């Protein structure tokens, strides 16, 4: 069964569906489920391995040796990555690493400096 979200206006848990609308009986706010999922995707928060929120332009450090796919190279633990850019997808950090070039990293393998 679909778990209905709380009302975005008053946070009431008693929301219900009426066709393609979600309605809050306490404050009469109406919204669509598509709007709800778009807001969540738009406000996606990316966190590092320690739970710190990452932003575009941050500097991070690699916390684990990472094998580079298609190469025999390894990105060593402690490698500093400057000026990251957050992107959608499984690998949510787009960056440029000295001596390696453009890379995509997972946020779970870095920590904010």
Automatic annotation (TrEMBL):
InterPro entries in the record: YjdM (IPR004624), YjdM_C (IPR013988), YjdM_N (IPR013987)
Domain of life: Bacteria
Pfam families for the chain: YjdM, Zn_Ribbon_YjdM
Ranges of residues in domain Protein YjdM N-terminal: 3-32
Domain spans labelled Protein YjdM C-terminal: 46-113
NCBIfam families: phnA
Entry similarity comment: Belongs to the YjdM family.
The protein's name in its UniProt record: Alkylphosphonate utilization protein
Taxonomic lineage: Bacteria, Bacillati, Bacillota, Bacilli, Bacillales
């Amino acid at each position: 069964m679909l778990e209905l979200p709380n009302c975005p206006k008053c946070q009431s848990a008693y929301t219900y569906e009426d066709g393609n609308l979600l309605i809050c009986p306490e404050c009469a706010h109406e919204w669509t489920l598509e709007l709800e999922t778009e807001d969540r995707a738009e406000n996606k928060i990316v966190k590092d391995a320690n739970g710190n929120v990452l932003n575009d332009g941050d500097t991070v450090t690699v916390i684990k040796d990472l094998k580079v796919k298609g190469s025999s190279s390894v990105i060593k633990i402690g490698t500093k990555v400057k000026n990251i850019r957050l992107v959608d997808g499984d690998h949510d950090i787009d960056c440029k690493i000295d001596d390696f070039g453009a890379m995509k990293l997972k946020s779970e393998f870095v920590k904010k400096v």
